[in-house]
Design goal:
- α3 (89-99) links the parallel β2 and β3.
- The longest helix is centred in the C-terminal third of the chain and has 42 residues, at 288-329.
- The protein has helices at residues 5-28, 59-67, 89-99, 115-125, 144-148, 173-194, 210-215, 226-236, 257-277, 288-329, 334-339, 352-376, 387-395, 397-414; strands at 46-52, 76-83, 104-110, 130-133, 138-140, 158-167, 206-209, 240-251.
- By secondary structure, the chain is of the alpha/beta class.
- The protein has an eight-stranded mixed β-sheet with strand order 3-2-1-4-7-6-8-5, sandwiched between helices.
- Helices cover 52% and strands 13% of the residues.
- The termini are far apart.
């Protein structure tokens, strides 16, 4: 039997997929000491920073969710940074401030300089012992601080705490597809948290120790994924990032494939950029599981996606070429083709090894989905989820994500500039 280069690449890819799948299943079923939930006995001063660019549709609801926090009003400040918005965002913020005179709300206006600069400008005047970024299209539950701040008391090395992130009120099929994706992503966040391997602190209300972030120099203003960069930097300096499922932040997701494509390009390109920026952490035993497992797989996941879909398309193209050649030989006489159509199946020619790997991975994928719903305490039928959206997520969305990764590869080859929105 001749083993081609493609066969070797596929074998390595399947091996890595099975290895990682089994590894994370072992992590899932590993025991860990349970921390007792604590209640806040004191109320440290807290700062919420809201960077906003053209968010007139959601900024009021975002600010209202902060005002509704179950936390003493004299112990919280809201800093809104208007990043050169060209719509009515500034007007909406000023109107909200005038309607809530008892709440400490500060508005900073800057030219459009990006989220990193907006966060640093807000952080420069923040008085809180702890602070959080809340994207202007996201909404924190009233119990947010009550659930998250006590976690910092578990370990003085904890520098950030992330909430459970969900899609807010998904309407069309694409938003429902993203709802499935967010559910599964939270499962992986749960696994990474068990190994202290969280590599991103999402913009929707991740809470930080203010002094730690200031001591590290604040946010990187040049990256397109500042929430991922600051998380990797925290890991580099041996700080802990904790994931909690005791409170929820809801976020509005893109409504069109074009907007989603641009968002995912920014997310994944930013993840590759920052992985290369911190390449010394990759396979570095000093950083434990984060260096050995998490950092390499940030880039590896994209490579695997491209290899698998590329192989599928290559096999499809080869089959199409053989079929076309046969049809040409019979002068495209479809009637003759149909008359001589045979349903004989020779199972000895089936690629059993590939089918076994595919079936195993598919089984693991379904298990992950089921466990993910259990983890976040939701049912698959909630919010009007449809069969079409589920099928789209399971069998089509992967090709979309692969297209994103392929475009990122194109950006690297052609040295195309990053885009922010």
């Amino acid at each position: 039997m001749i083993i081609t280069f493609l066969d070797a690449v596929l074998f390595i890819t399947y091996f890595l997929l099975l290895f990682l799948s089994i590894f994370w299943l072992l992590v899932l079923f590993s025991s860990e000491p349970k921390q007792k939930k604590k209640k806040l006995e004191t109320f440290p001063f807290f700062s919420a920073i809201v960077p906003a660019y053209n968010e007139e549709k959601s900024i009021t609801a975002t600010l209202q969710s902060l005002v509704n926090l179950n936390y003493p009003k004299d112990k919280i400040e809201i800093i809104v940074v208007n990043d050169g918005s060209e719509d009515r965002t500034k007007e909406m913020i000023e109107q909200f401030i005038s309607q809530h005179p008892s709440q400490t709300i500060v508005l900073l206006n800057q030219e459009n300089q990006g989220k990193g600069r907006a966060m640093n400008n807000g952080l420069a005047i923040a008085k809180g012992e702890y602070f959080a970024c809340l994207d202007a299209d996201s909404f924190i539950a009233p119990d947010g601080l009550q659930a998250m701040l006590p976690i910092f008391e578990q370990d003085p090395n904890i520098a950030a705490v992330c909430p459970l992130l969900k899609v807010k009120n998904p309407q069309n099929i694409l938003q429902k597809v993203q709802w499935y994706e967010y559910v599964v992503n939270m499962f992986y966040k749960f696994l990474n948290a068990k190994l202290d391997c969280i590599h991103v602190t999402p913009g929707p209300f991740s809470v930080y120790k203010t002094k730690v972030i200031k001591d590290l120099g604040g946010y990187d203003e040049n990256t397109i994924t500042e929430d991922l960069e600051i998380a990797i930097r925290l890991q580099k300096h041996q700080y802990k990032i904790v994931q909690t499922f005791d409170t929820v932040v809801e976020t509005i997701v893109p409504t069109s494939w074009k907007k989603l494509f641009r968002q995912r390009i920014r997310w994944y390109k930013g993840s590759v950029d920052n992985s290369l920026k911190y390449k010394k952490l990759i396979f570095n035993k000093k950083y434990g599981d984060f260096g050995i497992i998490r950092m390499p797989t940030i880039i590896l996941s994209g490579i695997i996606a491209i290899v698998l879909v590329g192989t599928f398309l290559q096999a499809l193209a080869a089959k199409a070429l053989v079929t076309f050649s046969y049809l040409r030989d019979i002068n495209f006489d479809f009637l003759t083709l149909i008359r001589h159509l045979s349903l004989e199946i020779n199972i000895l020619t089936w690629p059993f090894s590939r089918l076994f790997v595919a079936a195993t991975l598919m089984g693991i994928s379904f298990f992950i989905m089921i466990y993910s719903y259990k983890l976040i305490k939701e049912k698959i039928t909630n919010h009007g989820r449809t069969f079409i959206s589920l099928v789209t997520y399971l069998f089509i969305y992967g090709f979309f994500i692969t297209a994103v990764w392929m475009y990122i590869g194109f950006m690297f080859v052609r040295k195309k500039k990053n885009f922010w929105n």
